[in-house]
Automatic annotation (TrEMBL):
GO terms for molecular function: catalytic activity. This is F5/8 type C domain-containing protein. Residues 121-420 form the Endonuclease/exonuclease/phosphatase domain. The lineage of its organism: Bacteria, Bacillati, Actinomycetota, Actinomycetes, Streptosporangiales. The keyword Signal applies. Residues 1-27 form the signal peptide. It comes from Nonomuraea dietziae. It holds the Pfam family Exo_endo_phos.
Length: 597
């Protein structure tokens, strides 16, 4: 049945609607049958709700609740929660426009046999935190280490250590108590170094019991995979691997172009089938070597949990399913990616998507806080976990500097510490131990969700009635007339390298004084976002000589259109002063003025 809830956050009992299951496990017993209700802020689809579940609180016991919101086989929300008082509240979720059921399971555990919590972090550091040697002051690496200490992972999977490995270890351990220190393993061996040197590293607070030997065959080497067996405080162990797989067949770029083309009714440059073939150039073979050869050779028949983190250069089949075809930025594109599905088929959980199953609400972007987030959710970095005793408590993707670092000069050219976002996941390994010891990480909903806003009110001024000039432009392909030609596939672009340096201006002559309602600035719709304008000033003029400021603008590193309200202002000329654009350049696909109808 469709779940209907009254407005004003009224709690609703779900008797008869919920499928409840009591589970058992070693050292666990059946909890009392839980009761459930929803707290919602509205009535029907689009409402934001939480599941409130209540069981029986018992002395010296911890209750494990698992809540799942689903429509058939489509999961929209999922939580694993622990409590000593018998009541939990899930994270908020949005009711889909479909019939839903809520499943709740309850397991009661002895308070000293809940499990061991672990925080996992996976991150590609972009040549050791140096932005491919562009940032050579060392300040970014120092801030990066400060951020790592803020996250405080138990296991850190690193890609592109590239010469910073020991500095990171020293920075992580500075000032730490003896029982809270990290150890590290350089996993990429010298025979597999790239031009930049070493690649994969593993940092951990756990006891490193064994480092696995170099594995190499026709498809992978220690440049792609390496790991170690790590001891848990309760005497058990886990297997931990850092990994990186090849970027040939650029999954992000091809998907980006397809979504943009679908959204704007442009001809497709590649079919879905051609896009999916990108995984088969190298990544599928690499994945089979990792999952079917290398890892089995390391762990044999050991059924201890396996944890992996790294940069796959691949999109997720879980994100690009039919369920999310109309999610913001997806443009109706459905892509059953074969590479990431290999990990699911081999029993691994994509921990971010497990904790945040609604890919529309939680896109989990990791590509690219530096190069630009583009038009689609680029999620190419992962933390995987496999094992019957593994419970995922929460996961998030970080793409912004810590607040205390945003005043640094680094923040404008380098808004995060790397060109990749990091993935942080909290898990629990069930067994001996007192359970979670800190609040699990959570992803913020809506980061980058509203990708294509509705068109501004008013009458669009026809391109034929407009003229454009610019203070600088790249002859031919960067002509300012490209910004008023009504075509999303042509761009204005400042001369590059940027001569003169910013600020740059582009001015649109409306042909006569008009009463304006808004103006839309459409960034170029390419995966190469060089020149995308991030800061500037919108100005107007009646004579084309004297301009007055209307409003300062600060825009995200995305290809979404940026709309500025002009509220009935009268003018003949509109000018955008570009104070800062990616790479020191200025670029736009279109400037679209709207006049009052």
């Amino acid at each position: 049945m469709r779940l209907l809830v009254p407005p004003l956050a009224v709690a609703v009992a779900l008797t008869g609607l919920l499928a409840a299951t009591n589970t058992t496990a070693a050292a666990a017993d059946r909890g009392s049958k839980p009761s459930y209700r929803l707290d919602c802020d509205g009535n029907g689809p689009g409402s934001t709700c939480t599941v409130v579940a209540t069981g029986k609180a018992r002395p010296h016991r911890v209750e494990e609740f698992v809540t799942t919101v689903r429509s058939g086989d489509q999961v929209w929300a999922r939580d694993t929660l622990y409590t000593r008082d018998g009541q939990v509240r899930s994270r908020p979720f949005v009711l889909p426009d479909k019939d839903v059921t809520v499943d709740v399971s309850l397991t009661s555990l002895p308070e000293k046999h809940v499990g061991t919590p672990l925080r996992l972090m996976a991150w590609n550091l972009f040549v050791g935190g140096t932005y491919n040697r562009q940032e050579n002051t060392g300040e970014n690496l120092a801030q990066m280490i400060d951020y790592m200490n803020e996250v405080n992972p138990d296991i850190l999977f690193v890609v592109e250590g590239y010469g910073s490995g020991q500095k990171i270890l020293d920075g992580l351990n500075a000032g730490r108590a003896e029982g809270d220190r990290f150890a590290s393993v350089q996993l990429t061996t010298p025979e597999d170094y790239s031009v930049n040197g070493d690649n994969l590293w593993l940092y951990t607070k756990l006891d490193i019991q064994k480092v696995y030997p170099r594995y190499a065959d026709a498809d992978i080497s220690s440049f792609n995979l390496g790991g170690a067996r790590l001891g848990l405080p309760n005497g058990k162990h886990v297997h931990a691997f850092s990994l990186w797989t090849w970027h040939d067949g650029w999954a992000y770029g091809d998907t980006h172009d397809a979504a943009v083309q679908n959204t704007h009714g442009l001809p497709r440059t590649k079919t879905n089938e051609q896009i999916l073939e990108g995984d088969n150039l190298r990544r599928v073979a690499m994945g089979k070597a990792i999952l079917e050869k290398a890892i089995p050779s390391f762990i044999g028949d050991d059924d201890a949990p396996v944890l992996m983190g790294g940069d796959l250069n691949a999109q997720s089949h879980l994100d690009w399913s039919e369920q999310f075809a109309n999610a913001p930025g997806h443009g109706g594109v459905v892509l059953p990616w074969p590479y990431t599905k290999l990990y699911t088929d081999h029993g691994f959980m994509d921990t971010f998507r497990y904790a945040n199953p609604d890919a529309g609400r939680y896109p989990g972007r990791t590509w690219s806080p530096y190069h630009g987030m583009g038009a689609i959710p680029g999620r190419i970095d992962y933390v995987f976990a496999r094992g019957k005793d593994v419970r995922v408590l929460g996961s998030r993707a970080d793409i912004d500097r810590l607040p205390r670092h945003r005043q640094s000069w680094l923040n404008q050219p380098y808004p995060f510490y790397s060109d990749h976002g990091s993935v942080v996941t909290d898990i629990l390994i069930r067994g001996k131990g007192t359970g979670p010891d800190r609040e699990p990480v959570t992803e913020e909903p809506g980061k980058g969700r509203h990708i294509w806003p509705a068109e501004p009110a008013g009458r669009r001024v026809p391109p034929a009635e407009l003229k454009a000039t610019a203070s600088t432009f790249k002859p031919g392909i960067g002509d300012p007339r490209n910004a008023i030609d009504g075509k999303l596939t042509t761009d204005f672009h400042s001369d590059y390298p940027a001569v003169p340096p910013q600020p740059h201006t582009i001015t649109v002559d409306l042909g006569r004084v008009r009463e304006l309602s808004a103006v839309r600035f459409q960034p170029k719709l390419r995966t190469n976002m060089n020149g995308t304008i991030l800061k500037g000033m919108v100005q107007v003029s009646d004579d084309g000589i004297t301009f007055r400021d209307v409003t300062p603008v600060e825009w995200p590193r995305m290809t979404a259109p940026n709309d500025v309200s002009l509220q009935g202002l009268s003018a003949r000329y509109i000018r955008l002063r570009s104070d800062y654009g990616i790479g020191g350049a200025s670029a736009l696909a279109e400037i679209i003025p709207y006049e009052k109808a």
